[in-house]
Amino acid sequence: MAAAVFISICGCSRVTPSSTKYIAQGYALNTYVKVTLYGSGSDEIAGRAVDMCSEYERIFSRTDEDSMLYRLNNAGSLTRKEAADDKGFDELTALVRSGIEYGKLTDGALDITIEPVSSLWKFGTDEAALPDAGQIADALTKVDYSKVEVTDDFIELNGCRLDLGATAKGYIAGKICDYLKKEGVTGAIVDLGGNISCIGTKADGTGFTVGIKKPFDEEGQMSLALDLSDMNIVTSGVYERYFYDNDKLYHHILNPATGYPCENGLLSVTVISADAAQCDALSTGCFVLGMDKAKDLVEGLDGVYAVFIDDNYDVYYTKGTERFIKE
After folding, report:
1. 69: which residues sit within 8 A by CB, 6+ positions away?
2. At 77, which helix (H) or strand (E)?
3. 3-class DSSP string for 101-147
4. CB 304 within 8 Å of CB 323
């Protein structure tokens, strides 16, 4: 993910810092969140950063009946006037627009209208189970991000439903980093359940060591260690949420084309860039694309890097990633 203390409580990536000054922790976005400030800031600033997660959750949550997204999904459309919250509506439209753009970029490998399918699988709950094939086929008819219409004043789903789980944490992490920088923070780690954002350096001027977890390893072994500063890193892996049915593993990274978990020989995909939202969206999109297409996509983007771990536990990475690797 090499100092003695791991920052991340849970998730795919873990951080080893030194000399912590201000720390705030909480639970939001269905995961543990932690903000650690180095050399500048205050307890109040760190705490406010964590509180922002709950505020955004009230906009983007798919399951909270009071959230703006829940209202949109159940009504099928939402106007700015109906939202009765200009700031929240602007945040929601921005995230939906971003999701549509990443859908185009990945040729539908990332599809924010996957909700009719993802809700059938119920990953992350005690009820996760293999859905009926007919239910999946029916749900797939409602998956098509290109049907969603967004303007500054309304969102129209046209028969679709949104699941922003593959994009929201990255978007929120970016907003938190913007806030911390505005408050004069020069060194920080923002950890949203394994979505890691690094601001500046630690107090001693060194970068942050972030490790990519070895899939399914319960002892915390790393497949690769990276040295990061002013960068974000997000990993999507089959070992995060899964269950077995008749000795077959079913994981939570669903292929929008089939409605079933991806089966492409990958165990995890990690994306690194200066844009937290980009990392989050592309980690899922690249996993669905598979290693060859994903490498072509990433290597065609400026300042974006990716690491792939296949089902033989072999590690591959895109051009330029070697600049971050710690020996």
Report:
1. 59, 60, 61, 62, 92, 162, 164
2. strand 77-79
3. HHHHHCCCCCCCCCHHHHHHHCCCCCCCCCCCHHHHHHHHCCCCHHH
4. no
What's 215's domain CATH number? 3.10.520.10
- How far is residue 194's CA from residue 234's CA, in Å, rounded to a whole number? 7
> According to the model, what pLDDT value does residue 254 have?
98
Tokens (6 digits) for 274: 């200066």
- For the full predicted model, state whether its pTM sits above 0.85: yes
Residue 65 resides in a domain: yes
Q: What pLDDT sits at residue 12?
A: 45
257 neighbors 300 (Cβ within 8 angstroms)? no
Please state the rounded mean pLDDT for residues 123-142.
Answer: 96
How much is the pLDDT for 220? Answer: 84
Question: Is there a single domain that holds both residue 46 and residue 80?
Answer: no
Q: Give mean pLDDT, residues 247-268.
A: 97
Beta bridge partners of 25: 34
Q: Report the number of distinct structural domains present in the chain.
A: 2
User: With contact defined as beta carbons under 8 Å apart, do 166 and 280 qualify?
Assistant: yes
